[in-house]
């Protein structure tokens, strides 16, 4: 959620624009200020990454790492908290939709005898992920510039003006007033293919691919049935009520139970 600051209280854009007396002109100005502040933030962030000026220390639920973000992006997510609390050493953890690597870095820092595998199809985000990896000393984190889907090959990827929500689905890249800046063909692989090629069988899978989650899972049915990894995914992966039913039907098909925890879904093997 993109937020504005009013005094010391943060309120959402929707709350800000629906306040009493907020005219269409006010909303237009609010949107313009939102857009300007976002562009300034991303410009400053990109400068920090490009020149590698200062990788600041971030702390997430008791573990620390460094990256070039200007604030602790996703470092306080409930989903990350669950992963950090439930994971352990000597595990294999897949971070699918790694973005700039907050989850992967936190996991690699806390569980240095586990192997973390991060997948990010967006070339720009992947470059940032790589720079963030290089400013740490973790040897248990591997990164891959590919997407995961229900097929092997190439697929169109929609790059958003809000980089964190770029997606294989156009509508996923247009949330929160985002706009599609470009469409790029990127390499994709099935989860089962990745497991077969790397010989790494996941114990846990974090999934944050802006609405593309069901296709990722469909490409990993053998892995889900044989390795039975626990799945961690954000609520926006579900989408509409129809999508929700399709996801629940899929989990039932592969003998998984679904646990809903606020904005997050957990896929848990039944046996």
Task: Describe the protein in words.
This protein is an alpha/beta fold and 271 residues long. It has two domains: 14-53; 58-269, Rossmann fold, CATH 3.40.50.150. It contains nine helices and 14 strands. The radius of gyration is 19 Å and the shape is globular. It starts with a strand and ends with a strand.
List the helices and strands and how they pair.
Elements lengths: L2 E4 L2 E4 H5 L6 H28 L4 E5 L2 E5 L10 H9 L5 E5 L5 H9 L4 E5 L3 H12 L6 E4 L2 E3 L3 E8 L19 E11 H8 L5 E4 L5 H6 L2 H7 L2 E5 L6 H13 L2 E6 L2 E6 L2
Parallel strand pairs: 5-6, 5-11, 6-7, 8-10, 11-12
Antiparallel strand pairs: 1-2, 3-4, 9-10, 12-14, 13-14
Quick tags:
disordered N terminus; 14 strands; three-stranded mixed beta sheet; 28% strand; 36% helix; alpha/beta; seven-stranded mixed beta sheet; Rossmann fold; 271 residues; single chain
Provide a compact summary of the structure.
The chain has 271 residues and is α/β, with parallel strands linked by helices. The chain contains 9 helices and 14 strands. The chain has helices at residues 13-17, 24-51, 78-86, 102-110, 123-134, 191-198, 213-218, 221-227, 241-253, and strands at residues 3-6, 9-12, 56-60, 63-67, 92-96, 115-119, 141-144, 147-149, 153-160, 180-190, 204-207, 230-234, 256-261, 264-269.
């Amino acid at each position: 959620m993109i937020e504005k600051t009013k005094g010391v209280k943060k309120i959402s854009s929707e709350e800000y624009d629906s306040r009493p007396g907020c005219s269409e002109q006010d909303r237009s100005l609010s949107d313009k200020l939102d857009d300007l502040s976002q562009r300034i933030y991303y410009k400053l962030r990109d400068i920090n990454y490009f020149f590698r000026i200062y990788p600041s220390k971030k702390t997430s639920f008791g573990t620390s790492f460094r990256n070039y973000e200007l604030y602790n992006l996703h470092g306080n997510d409930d989903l990350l908290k669950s992963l950090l609390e439930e994971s352990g050493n000597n595990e294999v953890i897949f971070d699918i939709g790694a973005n700039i690597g907050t989850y992967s870095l936190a996991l690699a820092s806390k569980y240095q005898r586990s192997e973390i595998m991060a997948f990010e199809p967006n070339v720009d985000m992947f470059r940032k992920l790589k720079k963030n990896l290089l400013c740490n000393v973790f040897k248990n984190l591997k990164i891959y510039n590919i997407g995961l889907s229900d097929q092997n090959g190439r697929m169109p990827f929609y790059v958003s003006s809000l980089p964190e929500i770029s997606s294989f689905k156009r509508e996923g890249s247009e949330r929160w007033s985002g706009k599609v800046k470009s469409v790029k063909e990127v390499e994709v692989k099935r989860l089962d293919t990745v497991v077969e090629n790397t010989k790494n069988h996941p114990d846990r899978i974090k999934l944050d691919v802006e609405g593309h989650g069901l296709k990722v899972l469909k490409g990993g049915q053998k892995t889900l049935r044989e390795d039975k990894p626990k799945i961690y995914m954000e609520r926006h992966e579900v989408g509409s009520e129809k999508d929700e039913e399709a996801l629940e039907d899929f989990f039932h098909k592969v003998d998984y139970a679904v646990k809903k925890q606020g904005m997050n879904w957990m896929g848990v093997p039944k046996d």
